[in-house]
Amino acid sequence: MTDQEHKTSRRATIMRGVVTPIFGLLAVACFVFGILNATEWKPTAQVNASASADTRYVVTDPGVLALADGASTVTVTSSAADRKLCVVSGLPHDITGWVAGHPYTRLTGLASWSELSVTQAKATGTPDAPADAVSLEQSDMWQSVDCGTGTVSIERPADAASTELLFDSNADAAADDDTGAALTVSMSWTRAKLPDYATPLYFVGGLLTIAAVLSASLFAVHPSKRRKKGSASGTEVARVEEEITVTIPHLVAGIAGSAVNSAAVALHLAKPKRRRHARRAAGGTGGAESAASVPQPKVVDVTDRNMVAQTAAAAKGAQDAQPSQDARPVPEVTLGPVQSSPDGGADADRAAAQDAEPTSVISMDELNAYIARLNAENAGKDGKGEGGSR
Length: 390
Known about the structure:
- With 390 residues, the chain is an alpha+beta fold.
- It folds into four domains: 3-40 and 197-228; 46-190, Jelly Rolls, CATH 2.60.120; 233-265; 284-383, no CATH class.
- The chain has helices at residues 3-38, 92-98, 198-216, 223-229, 234-266, 284-293, 307-321, 344-356, 364-389, and strands at 46-53, 57-60, 72-78, 84-90, 103-112, 115-122, 144-149, 151-156, 164-168, 183-190.
- The strands form two sheets. A six-stranded mixed β-sheet has the order 6-5-2-9-4-7. Strands 1-10-3-8 form a four-stranded antiparallel β-sheet, with no helix packed on it.
- Helix 1 (3-38) runs antiparallel to helix 3 (198-216).
- The protein is elongated.
- Residues 269-292 and 323-344 have low confidence and may be disordered.
């Protein structure tokens, strides 16, 4: 077994024998707790909490009536069934002024889902004199007043949950009398929306299940084998990678070369190729001066003229004009002495006329034939001259 196969086998053993069971157990635990929270451990919609007090006055703190829900039901039961019991709602400063100088019990919140938390307190100030005192039921400081004997029950709507309640267990007694019966205060709420603890547990359990499946299948396979399985074959993958490796640098080099050439042309660093055109060949000093006087060369179409035909036509015209061979125009290129002709002026005019015509481009074979013919004519003239002198 090679090292890679040993590593692959060890990886599969760890992922399938250790990691997968852990994820599976956690997923099962999440599902079990989710089911329990949706059934046995589901929060109840009805909340009932109560507390006991042995002072004459009992006061609720702001917000206590809306601990579990907006609307609430408050029930007060007195241990003395013959004493008058009153429950009033009012503003915090009015209630504080009424209990000034008296000990009282405060209901501060929920100690548990079935018990209210209480604390003992005493308001600062002095109680009203008995002569000037007004009974709790007759006072005009309260928003609502409910009185009875033994038990009093009131319904508090959601919009009145921010107000405070004052309980008086001995409403008929004088203002400075602190004696009262023991009270039992109960509050109940019916929750319209219950907290959902099951859905998050189901979600986490689903994620753990997916992790367990991946650990047992995909993550247990070596990365090199996963790459091979994803393609048709290893050779095909290598070939494609090689093509990509070779093609990309060439493509980059081509783009860079094109950009450099374009920049060189724009900066006039690279001269564009031009077609070569034949220029008029001028013989002697007159030809050089004539070429210098022309500002630009004249482009001649080589297919428009035939030098051989033109030369033959010029020679025939010269013979018709003057039968004598001495009257022929003398070419500019000579290999020997040239006899002067009596009609020098006419010859000069014809030569000038021929020079004024545009010269066509000829090949090297035609030029060699023309020079050979010229040499033959000059050689014939030299032979005639020697024969005449004899």
